[in-house]
Amino acid sequence: ISHLKSHHNELIVDLDSIMDSTCDVSGEFDKKKIGSYAIFPISVDGELLALLEMSSHKKGMLDGIVAKKFENIKTLFNTSIKRYLRQYDVNLEAIIKEKCTAIHPTVEWKFKQEAETYYRNKLNGLNSEMTDIDFPGVHPLYGQIDIKDSSLKRNAAIKNDLMDQLKDLQRIIENAFLLSNLPYYGQLLNMINTRMSELGLGLGVGDEVAVLDFIKREVEPNLEHIESLNMECARLIAKYQKKLKSNTNAYNKRRNQYESSVNAVTSTITEMMIERQLIAQEMFPHYYEKYKTDGVEHNIYIGDSLVKGRKYYDLYLKNIRLWQIMSMIEIENRLKQEHDSLKVKMNVCSLILVHSNAITIRFRMDEKKFDVEGAYNIRYEIIKKRIDKSLIQKTKERLTQPGKLAIVFAHPDERLEYIGYLKYMESLGYIKPGIEVHDLAPVQGINGLRALRVSINYDQDLAIDQSMKLIEAALN
Predict the structure, then answer these.
(1) Domain hosting residue 446, numbered range
(2) How would you classify the pairing of strands 404-409 and 348-353?
(3) Does residue 276 come out as left (phi exceeding 0), alpha (psi in the -120 to 50 range) or beta?
(4) CA angle (112, 380, 354) in 5-degree steps
(5) Which of 27, 90, 198, 286 suits a disulfide with 302, CB 3.0-4.6 Å?
(6) pTM
(7) Domain end among 197, 222, 251
């Protein structure tokens, strides 16, 4: 065995001379009438990957001459194994992509294990499917940086764009009515005025589609006739069509400004979270996912079952919680610096949800996504979807406010732990002095939640590298 581990050939010219009659292996060799035996280790890049066994009924048949001949063709075996391993990895990756889509690097090892089992079964002709993959005993973290009043700003942009388009069409139809004295143009003008009055009251669900459909179906088919009435009508229509056909579509101006501003905010959040994730993953590997809503939300799961080859300590949970607070405040600072450059001014609200109990997350093969297991754990998911609308109890004040970080919790020990983090943040200048503690009004059946809230200090030059060193020093 030691020879094989050292990648040396093992030759047994005469088995009878070394075999113990009480050995099970000896009995097997006797049954097969094996007289000489050889094992040739096959290595790739210094790693032992395969063993080639040869045997002969004749004693002395497998000797040094045979070993020398094998060495001459060993390269062919090495090349074949390399090719097989490359194809094996390609097949596993294809299985993972087909069955699981993109997988976070932290948990890739687990999916590779499942893919290997599935692939072997398939090669052996067994009917099998990849089963759901569980990761028990993981600690969840949730955070969101949400654009305040984004729906109102979006509706205002749409409404103003539509009003601009209707005003230009109103002027065209007015001229047509005065020149032609056709009653239908009077009716059409009345329809445009009605649409403008309705928009003036606010944009409702489906109004954008309805107005654009009205313009396309009722108004624009008449422009060719109106264009022939006189030069002024032709000029107005040419101007209208130029706005429509411009690269940016002038009648989408405010909508485009809104979208570009939202994209700028979400891109900043996403890029900074990616940068900070590189640092956090070095501390201890964990699962991280983000998704865009009216801002950016993220989920983090950390625990022993997610990693392979590293021991998990509770220190890492404390570290990632502190990292989350610092990262969100740093992102808020960057967004504050970029605020004036936005076409549509955007304010954001930041929120963290604390959940101390470990949960089980499951990757569901049918849906190709992670989900939580168990009724209590599902309650956590429900809370995530509702807390951003939370009000402070006995008031009409929303918990989430621009310039503040809100941390929602349920248990007293969570309150104490996070107050400790926030006091540390205050000492570093990340937040202003003072920690608010609030009871939250029930939200759709969710009772008993409380929150800490602090004011973010936008006057500090926050450096992530220095901050991480301070975190490590404080927690070690």
Answers:
(1) 139-149+256-475
(2) parallel
(3) alpha
(4) 95
(5) 286
(6) 0.73
(7) 251
